[in-house]
Design a protein that fits this description.
By secondary structure, this protein is of the alpha+beta class. The chain has one domain: Alpha-D-Glucose-1,6-Bisphosphate, Chain A, domain 4 (2-Layer Sandwich). Helix content is 26%, strand content 34%. It has one helix and three strands, in the order βββα. The longest helix is centred in the last third of the chain and has 19 residues. The radius of gyration is 15 Å and the shape is extended. The termini are far apart.
C-alpha cells in the first residue's frame, strides 16, 4: 500500500563524514497503532550504532508528542 515504505538517502554536511546514508522506514498497521521498522546503512564507522539508536529514539519521542492526542483528566 502507498505510504507503508519510505526510502531516502542523506549525507552529513561535514566533509570528515563522507558517504551516502540510506534509510528505509517501514510502517505496518497493528491492532494497537503502528509498528515501525527503521534500517540505516552507510553510516560512517566513527559513529557508533548506539548513537544512531539513541538519535532515532529521540526523534520518535518528538514525533509522538506531535501526533498523540493530549488527554486531560
Amino acid at each position: 500500500m502507498p505510504g507503508e515504505r519510505i526510502r531516502y538517502t542523506d549525507k552529513f554536511d561535514d566533509p570528515n563524514l563522507p558517504g551516502l546514508i540510506e534509510v528505509t522506514v517501514i510502517l505496518k498497521k497493528v491492532s494497537v497503532g503502528t509498528e515501525i521498522d527503521i534500517t540505516q546503512s552507510g553510516i560512517p564507522d566513527v559513529i557508533p550504532p548506539e548513537a544512531c539508536y539513541l538519535g532515532w529514539q529521540e526523534s520518535l519521542r518528538n514525533l509522538a508528542k506531535l501526533v498523540e492526542p493530549e488527554i486531560n483528566q
